[in-house]
Structures are given as structure tokens and as C-alpha cells.
UniProtKB/TrEMBL annotation:
A Gene Ontology cellular-component term: cytoplasm
Protein name per Swiss-Prot or TrEMBL: Acetylornithine aminotransferase
Enzyme class: transferase
Subcellular localization: Cytoplasm
InterPro entries xrefs: AcOrn/SuccOrn_fam, Aminotrans_3, Aminotrans_3_PPA_site, Class-III_PLP-dep_AT, PyrdxlP-dep_Trfase, PyrdxlP-dep_Trfase_major, PyrdxlP-dep_Trfase_small
Species of provenance: Marinobacterium lutimaris
Cofactors: pyridoxal 5'-phosphate
Binding site for N(2)-acetyl-L-ornithine: 132, 273
Gene giving rise to this polypeptide: argD
Assembly information from the UniProt record: Homodimer.
N6-(pyridoxal phosphate)lysine: residues carrying this PTM: 245
Cofactor note: Binds 1 pyridoxal phosphate per subunit.
PROSITE patterns to which the protein is assigned, alphabetical: AA_TRANSFER_CLASS_3
Length: 397
């Protein structure tokens, strides 16, 4: 048997992209697609955003990399912007969401040891996704992600998502718990939005128990849900926040932000990275952060997201094959009553990129924050019709 030169980690659709512009992406045959996936919540400013292109090109011509053994002014500038935006105290930069979460997990363990807890444990959620490294797949609440990689990293205890009582019960009996790690909206799990007040109640428990509240905003951050960070919808401050996906519009970067006690735990030699926060990635991220505020894109995400959910409800809300249409800003899920994995391929044929998650039942849309009204209308009509045809409710036109 001859093997393909790429390791077999993805079931890829048979399309290759050549270039993009704004909300549109073009394949190598010249076909165009409305990109309602954004490389999974990464290219929030759309493709080839001029501010990002310029920042990257200018920086590539000056200095791409120099090592964290030296002062990196762009990293300091980006840290300054992100801490101001979030109210957090400091940042560690890595290259991905998983690495940002690894930093958070390491912080929680150091926090535990600083309090004399020898076997520090983190509460994580069912149905969560935190990444593919050993610690983050162990934190992830999906057996398929973990199967075959045992032994898993120890020190996690799992409870149902959006269930404060379950967290209280763990607090009563487990004295090793030092932190909670939770997504403000579960993305990979199927766009699950917790009840109003969930984070606030978790914050209260963390305060009582002296636990760290650690939010995985790898997907929800960077304007995606209608605030720069999703926790800013609720009146709380976390101890640790991680982000990555949308932070540099496609240039790899991850960030772990910390506040208070958690911001003092790393010291030289306790954590590090070769590439993390290099000048190129930071220049791209600075352009993204500046563009999001200059163009009011958080507000845009909220308004456009509300419009999309409202219109999808009008078009599909009453259909018997739809369980629920839900969204927070531009994280939108259309939950079907039965699996509809093929919809990603069918949508591609109709010129729309989306994906299906949550056990194959949730059509997930993550459109760019810069999507226009007419592009949004095209998305609503195309996807609604696609689902109706798929369910046998309408004939293909
Ligand atoms: C995508 C994602 C990750 C993993 O990020 P990578 O950059 O793929 O390592 C972690 N947490 C959440 C919530 C994510 O959506």
C-alpha cells in the first residue's frame, strides 16, 4: 500500500483555494464562494484585509523573528492593547489556541502548588473543546478526541456544561480543585450558549473557593460574539482568558491573559516558546485589534449576528426538521433534528462555505465581521433553501 505524503488527520473536501477578498474566497478553478466559516473563526476581517496585508508585508521586510531572549517592542504594544481592552494584567503569547490553553493549565497547576495543593485539579465541561495537545485533549469533553491517546493527563474533573449545581457539588467534596476552565459559548461542541448569569455564578463559586476562573475564548474572542471578549457580555472579570483564532486574521498566534494572583505565577524559566509573539505575528495582530476598534466591528458582529439569527428563524424556525436556531454575535448554530453532515459539501456546491459540528447536527456559521448586508441576505437565502431541499421540503432550483 502506498501512503499519501500528508498524514491522514482530515477528511478534506475536494477543493483548493487560491485567493480571497473580503467575505469571498476563490478556488483554483476560478469558482467563488461566500466564506461563512472563516477558516473556523480565524479570518474575522475577511480575506486580504488591506490593513493586515500591509502590516505583514512591512514587517516581513524588516524583521520576522528575533527570539524571546530579547525585548520585542511589538509584543509589548500588543500586550498593552489586549490588557487595556480586557482589563487583564498581562499576557503570554504562543502560536495557537491549544498552546494558549496549555499556558492556562500550567498557571492553574502552579497556582495550586502555591496554595499547598499537591495534586491540583481543574473543573472542565462535557462537550467542550480545548485543543489537541495531550493536556488540552485531556481537558476536552469529547471521547473521539481522546480515544487512543491514553494515558490522558491527570488533574481534570468533568461536569455538564451550563450546570452550576454540578460545580457546587464538586466544590463540596473535592479539595484538590484549583480552577474552572470553560468556554463562554461552546463552539466545536455545537454552538451552545449557556443561561444568562452562568459565568457570574461560576465567578461567585471561584471567589468563595479561591479558584481561578479560566475562560477559553480561543473561538469567542476578538469580536466574534459582539464584544471583544465574550465575557464582556456579563459583569465579571476572569482570572485567566485565552484566545487565538481571530487574533491575527490567520497568522498563527495564541494569547493567555492573566489577572491578579494568576498574573504573578510564571517566572523566567517556568514557561517559554521559540516562535510565540514574534514580530510578524504581533504586527498582524496589532493591525487586527486596531481595525476592530476603528471600524466598530464588535458592534457590527452583534447587529449582523442578531439579524442573521432573526432571519434564519423566520425562514426555518417552524420547520419540523429544525430543533433550534441560536447565536451569539457571529457564532451561529442551526440545530437539525437529525444528522446533516453532507450539508457542508452541498453548501460548497451552492457557493457557500460552512461546517457541521455538534455530532453532525449543528450547521455552524462563522461569517466575517466585515460581511455586508447583501452578503448576509445571500447567506440567509442560500443556506435556508439548502436545508429545506435537504430535508425534502422543497425542490432544488
Ligand atoms: C479551536 C479551539 C481551540 C484549539 O485551537 P488550536 O489553534 O487549533 O490549537 C481551543 N479552544 C477552543 C474553544 C477552540 O475553538
Amino acid at each position: 500500500m502506498s501512503l499519501q505524503p500528508l498524514m491522514n488527520t482530515y477528511n478534506r473536501l475536494s477543493v483548493a483555494f487560491d485567493h480571497g477578498e473580503g467575505a469571498w474566497i476563490y478556488d483554483t478553478d476560478g469558482n467563488k464562494y461566500l466564506d461563512a466559516l472563516c477558516g473556523i473563526a480565524v479570518t474575522g476581517l475577511g480575506h486580504a484585509h488591506p490593513a493586515v496585508t500591509k502590516a505583514i508585508s512591512d514587517q516581513a521586510g524588516r524583521l520576522i523573528h528575533c527570539s524571546n531572549l530579547y525585548t520585542v517592542p511589538l509584543q509589548e504594544q500588543l500586550a498593552e492593547k489586549l490588557t487595556t481592552l480586557s482589563g487583564m494584567d498581562n499576557v503570554f503569547f504562543g502560536n495557537s489556541g491549544a498552546e494558549a490553553n496549555e499556558a492556562a493549565i500550567k498557571l492553574a497547576r502552579r497556582y495550586g502548588h502555591s496554595k499547598g495543593v499537591d495534586c491540583p485539579t481543574i473543573i472542565v465541561m462535557e462537550n467542550s473543546f480545548h485543543g489537541r495537545t495531550l493536556a488540552t485533549l485531556s481537558a476536552t469533553g469529547n471521547r473521539a478526541t481522546q480515544a487512543g491517546f491514553e494515558p490522558l493527563v491527570a488533574g481534570f474533573v468533568r461536569v455538564p456544561y451550563d450546570d452550576v449545581e454540578a460545580v457546587r457539588q464538586v466544590a463540596e467534596k473535592n479539595t484538590n480543585v484549583v480552577a474552572i476552565l470553560v468556554e463562554p459559548v461552546q463552539g466545536e461542541g455545537g454552538v451552545h450558549i449557556p443561561a444568562e448569569g452562568y459565568l457570574k455564578q461560576l465567578r461567585e463559586i471561584c471567589d468563595q473557593q479561591e479558584w481561578l476562573l479560566m475562560l477559553d475564548e480561543v473561538q469567542t474572542g476578538n469580536g466574534r460574539t459582539g464584544r471583544y471578549f465574550a465575557f464582556q457580555h456579563s459583569d465579571i472579570m476572569p482570572d485567566v482568558v485565552t484566545t487565538a483564532k481571530g487574533l491575527a486574521n490567520g497568522v498563527p498566534i495564541g494569547a493567555c491573559l492573566a489577572r491578579g494572583e494568576a498574573a504573578k505565577l510564571f517566572t523566567p524559566g517556568t514557561h517559554g516558546t521559540t516562535f510565540g509573539g514574534n514580530p510578524l505575528a504581533c504586527a498582524a495582530a496589532l493591525a487586527v485589534v486596531d481595525t476592530i476598534s476603528a471600524e466598530n466591528l464588535c458592534q457590527r458582529a452583534e447587529e449582523l449576528g442578531n439579524y442573521l439569527v432573526e432571519q434564519f428563524r423566520v425562514q426555518l424556525g417552524d420547520a419540523p426538521y429544525i430543533r433550534e436556531v441560536r447565536g451569539k454575535g457571529l457564532m451561529i448554530g442551526i440545530e437539525l433534528t437529525e444528522a446533516g453532515t453532507e450539508l457542508a459539501v452541498l453548501a460548497k456546491v451552492k457557493g457557500v462555505l460552512l461546517n457541521v459540528t455538534g455530532g453532525g447536527r449543528v450547521v455552524r456559521l462563522l461569517p466575517p465581521l466585515i460581511m455586508s448586508q447583501s452578503e448576509a441576505d445571500l447567506l440567509i437565502n442560500t443556506v435556508s433553501q439548502l436545508i429545506r431541499v435537504y430535508a425534502g421540503d422543497e425542490r432544488d432550483s
